[in-house]
Amino acid sequence: MSFDASVVGRWSEPRPFDVTPASIAAYADAVGGPSPVYAVVPAMDLVFAVAGTAAPAELRARVVHGQQDIFFHRSLPVGETITVRAAVLGLHGKRSGTVATIGVRTYDADGALRNEQYVTEFYRGVPTDLRLGTPSPALPTDAPGGPPLRTATVPLPLDLPRRYADASGDRNPIHLDDEFARNAGLPGVIVHGLASLAVAGHTVLADRAEPVRLSCRFTRPVAPGDALTTRVWVDGPGYRFESVDEAGAVVLGAGLVVIA
């Protein structure tokens, strides 16, 4: 089993997506309220398709979401059709596995760029010597200083993975099938990283500020039925944040929000 390095930098054809009020409402219902993380939904299927051009199906069973970085230029036009394109931007190996960086570009009907995204996938236990293309943008490496601006704890419902899968289109079986998840080396079904990010985002953006960048690293799986505690610090024109599970383990790290 090996990665196909020839696909690095090859952008997909544009794929249309209808931004409907029903789709936005379903996503908000799944994650507990409106969220800028909805921006990932139009490209969900395309990201999986593009990632699949770089990694065979046998390797896809070993993948976890490592990092998400969203740059917002303009909000999505509700009730209109947009287009998305995606590409594998980089493949970088290390002893514990291989990182694939997938880029996404979202455009409106006039061709204006609405957002850019960087999706980092980590193929656990699949080491390579690959050093191709570009990685995702850097996230903070230092810990936030001082007391947090605010802290909130939110329970993660047992049915969150199913509801999030329905609302987002992300039906990776590690979120829906206990046996599949255990065979993939996980303790059981885990919550989607993006679902955790959307839930945490309600605490981070409690002042309803509009972000121009929203990013985090998914550092540890969290199980449905657990609770997510998010701590937020002021950081220049924005915030730093992290989220921990009930045991105090960090599950969302290096969280960063930039406000215009």
From TrEMBL:
<dbReference type="Pfam" id="PF01575">
    <property type="entry name" value="MaoC_dehydratas"/>
</dbReference>
<feature type="domain" description="MaoC-like">
    <location>
        <begin position="143"/>
        <end position="245"/>
    </location>
</feature>
<feature type="domain" description="Peroxisomal multifunctional enzyme type 2-like N-terminal">
    <location>
        <begin position="36"/>
        <end position="125"/>
    </location>
</feature>
<comment type="similarity">
    <text>Belongs to the enoyl-CoA hydratase/isomerase family.</text>
</comment>
<dbReference type="Pfam" id="PF22622">
    <property type="entry name" value="MFE-2_hydrat-2_N"/>
</dbReference>
<dbReference type="InterPro" id="IPR054357">
    <property type="entry name" value="MFE-2_N"/>
</dbReference>
<protein>
    <recommendedName>
        <fullName>Dehydratase</fullName>
    </recommendedName>
</protein>
<dbReference type="InterPro" id="IPR029069">
    <property type="entry name" value="HotDog_dom_sf"/>
</dbReference>
<dbReference type="InterPro" id="IPR003965">
    <property type="entry name" value="Fatty_acid_synthase"/>
</dbReference>
<dbReference type="InterPro" id="IPR002539">
    <property type="entry name" value="MaoC-like_dom"/>
</dbReference>
